[in-house]
Every structure is written in structure tokens, then in C-alpha cells.
């Protein structure tokens, strides 16, 4: 059975009259790569700072290996943090930056050399010991910040949007490197981002947050394919969201037609929201579809064409590898398993 290393229990945090976290309950497993995902102001960084001890909750408890740590200061927690601004010491060389925490712990010089060398190898910067921080690229500085955090052998590493300052190509490369590092060192990573691609690429588990609340917890596949509500469906990936009615288990009505689906557990004739991802829509001949629309926009996106199709008074977003001509009438088709039915929000 997998062990929970961090547990948040009924966490509430307010700044003045503004409640930024509302009854957050969260369990994080040992050796898990967990991502807090959401828009600016959703409470993800505040959650991270509470775990690290940089903020105190107004109510609720934080547990580390089942021991309450509300009053334990950050430097006494077995948790290290990598911030978006790497906070490296410009007057120290790379070796001194990585060794800083070890020197404070009064570890022997031989042991420090051994640990720093191991970290430089892990982040692919062997031989950089004597370089100045100012000589490094953004990606290299990010690696040094991670090495400095990991050299102290924390049980948990917190990462607050550490790739935000990097360009797109480097950011994508570092996503894979971070995931590989996490597997190699075998500790829990808790990662904060507003970038859905980062979350889907790296995470074992994603926590989607909005307005100080957890909207959904699940694997990347579950979050993408089975969004719990309209917010998650819109925030993680692109979606067609249509109002509908669940006739009965496995049968749903939307877009003026009745379709088979794979969902159950709804009340008969319950009003629902339907999610269909644009890549799950197939364009077919008019004779082979219940829905017929007119192509109003075609944009080449590299791996696919993004099309806007108008059908009655509805607009459909479609991703297809096959280019279509503007103003063509076309059939819109999807399989029962591509229709995802959600309860309507209150």
C-alpha cells in the first residue's frame, strides 16, 4: 500500500477579507509527482507555501508522515523549495551555491565534494564547479537551483513555476528532464503551474484548482478524458461544451439529436453538460451524420488543421489532419465513447 507523506486537512487561508483557500483536503503519496494546476489567483502557490512552512493557515492542519507540522519552521521540515526566481547567490560560484546548505549543516568537506559532484552529474553540469552564476543560461541556472535543493536530500521538493522564465523549446526539454530527475532521486515532487501541457507531461497526479478550491484530482488521462465539471473541461485542453439532457443510462440528447453514450448514474431526463474534445470529432459525408455544418475557418497548426464549423446556431471546434475547404458543408461525427457527460454545476 502506498504511503501518504503529506496530508492537508481542512486548510483555510485568508488575507484580510479575502479567503484564498477554502477547506482544502489533500493527500500526497511518497515518490509521487503531483502538480497543482490552475489560473492565477486560484490558491495553488499559497497551498505550496503552506506545505513549505512559509505561510500559516488560519484553520486546518498539515501532516508530514502523520506528524502535525503546523508549528515547524521551514528550515526544520524535510522539504526544500525551488522558486521561479532561482535565488542563486551571484557572489558564489556553482560549487559554493550547491554546497551552501551542506556547509550550514557542518558536513565534512570530503562529503560535501562527493554530494555536490553527484548533483552536478544528475543535472548534467559536470565540470561547472568553478563557473560564475552569471555565465550560465536560464536553463543551466534552473538546474543549479534544483541541484542546490536536492543536495540536502529532502523527502519532498516543492517547485513553484520553475520553468516560467524559459523559452518554449527549453521549457519542453526541461519538463522531461525534471520527470527523469524525480524518478532517479525517488522523492516526492509537488509542482505548481498554470500551464496545462506541463501538468499533463510530467505528473502522476494533477490537482486542478479554482477560486481556492480543488475542482478535481486525478491522473493526467482522467483529468483530460473525464473532467468533473465545465471549469476543468475548459481549463485542461480545448473542448466543445454543449447543454443536453440524459434520457436514461447510456442515452443522451443534445444538438437536437439523441445519441448513445457510455455514461450512467444520472437521473432520467436530468439536464447535463456534454464535453467532446475537438480531436475526437470526425468529418464525414453529409449522408453519414446526424449533424451537418458549414466550415467557417481553417487554420494550419503544424500537426493538424483547426476548424470552426457552424451547425444550426452552434459552433464546433474540430482538429483534423485532413484539410477541408472553406464554406464546405460537412457531416460531424463522434463515437459514443467520445461523448463525456457531466453533471451541471449548481
UniProtKB/TrEMBL annotation:
GO molecular function: ABC-type putrescine transporter activity; ATP binding; ATP hydrolysis activity
EC number(s) stated in the UniProt entry for this protein: 7.6.2.11
Catalysed transformations (reactions): ATP + H2O + polyamine-[polyamine-binding protein]Side 1 = ADP + phosphate + polyamineSide 2 + [polyamine-binding protein]Side 1
Domain ABC transporter: 6-236
Highest rank taxon of the organism: Bacteria
UniProt-listed PANTHER family: SPERMIDINE/PUTRESCINE IMPORT ATP-BINDING PROTEIN POTA, SPERMIDINE_PUTRESCINE IMPORT ATP-BINDING PROTEIN POTA
Subunit structure: The complex is composed of two ATP-binding proteins (PotA), two transmembrane proteins (PotB and PotC) and a solute-binding protein (PotD).
Summary of the function given for this chain in its UniProt record: Part of the ABC transporter complex PotABCD involved in spermidine/putrescine import. Responsible for energy coupling to the transport system.
Family of this protein: Belongs to the ABC transporter superfamily. Spermidine/putrescine importer (TC 3.A.1.11.1) family.
Protein name in UniProt: Spermidine/putrescine import ATP-binding protein PotA
Source organism per UniProt: Senegalia massiliensis
Gene expressing this chain: potA
Amino acid at each position: 500500500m502506498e504511503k501518504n507523506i503529506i496530508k492537508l486537512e481542512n486548510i483555510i487561508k485568508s488575507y484580510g477579507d479575502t479567503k484564498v483557500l477554502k477547506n482544502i483536503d489533500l493527500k500526497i503519496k511518497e515518490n509521487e509527482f503531483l502538480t497543482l494546476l490552475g489560473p492565477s489567483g486560484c490558491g495553488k502557490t499559497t497551498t505550496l507555501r503552506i506545505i513549505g512552512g512559509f505561510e500559516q493557515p488560519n484553520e486546518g492542519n498539515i501532516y508530514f508522515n502523520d506528524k502535525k507540522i503546523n508549528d515547524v519552521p521551514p528550515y526544520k521540515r524535510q522539504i526544500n523549495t525551488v522558486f521561479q526566481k532561482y535565488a542563486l547567490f551571484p557572489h558564489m560560484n556553482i560549487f559554493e551555491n550547491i554546497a551552501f546548505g551542506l556547509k550550514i549543516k557542518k558536513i565534512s568537506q570530503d562529503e560535501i565534494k562527493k554530494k555536490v559532484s553527484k548533483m552536478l552529474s544528475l543535472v548534467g553540469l559536470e565540470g561547472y564547479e568553478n563557473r560564475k552564476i552569471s555565465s550560465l543560461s536560464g536553463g543551466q541556472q534552473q538546474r543549479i537551483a534544483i541541484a542546490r535543493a536536492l543536495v540536502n536530500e529532502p523527502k519532498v521538493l516543492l517547485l513553484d513555476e520553475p520553468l516560467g522564465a524559459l523559452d518554449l523549446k527549453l521549457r519542453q526539454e526541461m519538463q522531461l528532464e525534471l520527470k527523469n530527475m524525480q524518478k532517479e532521486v525517488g522523492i516526492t515532487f509537488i509542482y505548481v503551474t498554470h500551464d496545462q501541457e506541463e501538468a499533463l507531461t510530467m505528473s502522476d497526479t494533477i490537482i486542478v484548482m479554482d477560486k481556492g478550491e480543488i475542482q478535481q484530482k486525478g491522473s493526467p488521462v482522467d483529468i483530460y478524458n473525464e473532467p468533473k465539471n465545465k471549469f476543468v473541461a475548459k481549463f485542461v485542453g480545448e473542448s466543445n461544451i454543449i447543454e443536453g439532457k440524459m434520457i436514461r443510462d447510456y442515452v443522451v440528447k443534445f444538438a437536437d439529436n439523441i445519441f448513445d453514450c457510455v455514461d450512467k448514474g444520472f437521473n432520467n431526463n436530468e439536464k447535463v453538460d456534454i464535453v467532446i474534445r475537438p480531436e475526437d470529432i470526425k468529418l464525414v459525408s453529409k449522408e453519414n451524420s446526424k449533424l451537418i455544418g458549414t466550415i467557417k475557418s481553417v487554420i494550419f497548426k503544424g500537426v493538424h488543421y483547426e476548424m470552426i464549423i457552424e451547425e444550426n446556431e452552434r459552433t464546433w471546434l474540430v482538429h483534423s489532419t485532413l484539410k477541408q475547404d472553406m464554406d464546405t458543408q460537412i457531416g460531424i461525427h463522434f463515437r459514443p465513447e467520445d461523448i463525456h457527460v457531466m453533471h451541471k454545476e449548481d
